[in-house]
Amino acid sequence: MIRLLSLSLLLLTLTACGSKINKEARKDGEEAARTLVNEAAGMSTMELENFLLNVRANEYIYRENGQDRAAEVYIKSFEDYIKENSDSLTKLIF
User: Fold this and answer.
1) ∠81-59-67 over CA atoms, to 5°?
2) pLDDT, mean of residues 38-50
């Protein structure tokens, strides 16, 4: 019984940590998208491509750290923000 209780507490702790990381990933993805929406008009094609590569690099960092769910949340929040706030970027990127 004590062993089961300890395992349950461990799982709750891991879930809470994962939830916090996912919230941070969502915030980071939205912030990256907001920056892109605000600055895209003044970017060259090369600067835009570099920005998008950095977004994918951030996704990769989450995955390298074993946070696949956070990586998915990061990219989804980035894409959703772009789609909701910039028709021209949506057409260009997606």
Assistant:
1) 110
2) 96
